[in-house]
Design brief:
By secondary structure, the protein is mainly α. It has helices at 2-10, 18-30, 34-47, 52-64, 68-81, 86-98, 101-114, 121-134, 139-163, 167-180, 185-197, 201-214, 219-231, 235-245, 253-265, 269-278, 288-300, 304-317. Among the domains are: 17-134, Tetratricopeptide repeat domain (Serine Threonine Protein Phosphatase 5, Tetratricopeptide repeat, Alpha Horseshoe), CATH 1.25.40.10; 249-331, Serine Threonine Protein Phosphatase 5, Tetratricopeptide repeat (Alpha Horseshoe), CATH 1.25.40. Pfam families: TPR_8.
Amino acid sequence: MNKQRKNVNNLLPFIPDGEFYFTKGVEAFQKQKFELSLRWLKKAIESDPKNPLYNCQLSIVYTEIGKYHAANQLLNNVLQTDDYNDCYYLLANNYAHLGLLNDSLKYAELYLDKEPDGDFSEEAYMLLEMVSFEMEEDDEDDWVFEEEDDLLKYQETLFYLIENEEWEKAMPLIEEMLVLFPDHLLVKHDYAQALFYTGNKQKAIALEQKTLEETDQTLHSTINLALFYFEMDEHEACQAKINELLNVYPLHTDQQIRLAVLFAKTGNYQAAYQRFRRINRSMARGHLSYFKWFSISAYKLEKIELAKNTWEEGCMKHRALNNHSAPWQES
């Protein structure tokens, strides 16, 4: 017995470190188990927050699942404290996916300037060739390209702010976009939302009513007005707009999510649940609102397990969702 106790006392406890978590994260990524990879890599970063390799690998997983904004944010954070050259290629790759070809070209060239024989040099040369080929247009087309690139940059930032309901921060960005892109109708709908949620409710309603009169593209205006009327307890006006939307089935994922979220916010949980079920989840990964309101709708319909699983998945994909109250936590 004494010998056994001595052997037990000599055992060293296994304490996992960042390298252990990182290895597990890479293994999960190679098996295309991306959610598991995200968990392991986040634990690796918790152990060693400033390790550039851990952050870059996490950015690669985000890229793989289409969360380019989160990936770029990680890479830029690394470059603020560490001249880790792989970041430049990874940024170039992400910007190419986003269609921001000028930025992709810039970062690919920067990577090759710093690492002409680096681990990603072959990929960088191929990316340069592809991007250069795409940009071989006449001067007029180049001007249009640059304008589209600028619009995408603005939209990426604005989308993040709206999804997190940061309306005060969104307003100056939207006002700038209205000047730069006056013919882009979606910006006007975002402006109406920002007006409403920063206190200019009547102006927001008037803007959307005017848009309805002037254009055939009525979906976003109708969605906004239904939500505005609901928030102002104008139930008959809200229901009239809801009735107009019950038989509308948009093709684009963004519009599908907006409509499903509207139904959920206005208490039409069955309609919301049915719409959420129709949405391709892989296309909705970047939408915090999808996970939040799908979970709420499922919970209200007593589909508790689905609600909790959806909320948990949303929290893994969107850290900001952890700051919201889950539907079962509300009194």
